[in-house]
Structure formats: C-alpha cells, structure tokens
Sequence to fold (74 residues):
Amino acid sequence: MKTKFAILLSTTSLLHAGAPELGPTPMPKPEPWIKPLIDIRVRYEYADIDAKDQSNALTFRESLGFKTKKWNGF
Fold:
C-alpha cells in the first residue's frame, strides 16, 4: 500500500513538473460591424418514369445579405 502511494505521489509530481506558466491571454478581435452572408444551394433531379419522357431539372437557390452588429438594442 505504501509503495502504491509513493508511486502515485511521484508520478503526479512529475506530471505537473513541466506545466507552463499561464501568461496573459490576448484580447479577442472585435466582431466586425457588417458581416456578409452567403448561402448557395445547387440541386439536380432526374426522373425516368415508364410511359413518359425523361425529365431533368437543375435549380439554384441563393441567399445573399448582410448581418450587422447589435446596435442600441436593435
């Protein structure tokens, strides 16, 4: 029991021996006032139904905009 405790104590001290000092953390970059938003989705559909012609469809959905920072509660 004493040897297990001694091994545990020595291993714990060795693990903490090389721990670096925590310095001051750098300030995070401020959030920009305007951030562009882009959402693009492309979709292709194909259908081959008996007794009907083949059908193909290609669609694009785009959503563009800007997101602003919170300003006076808005």
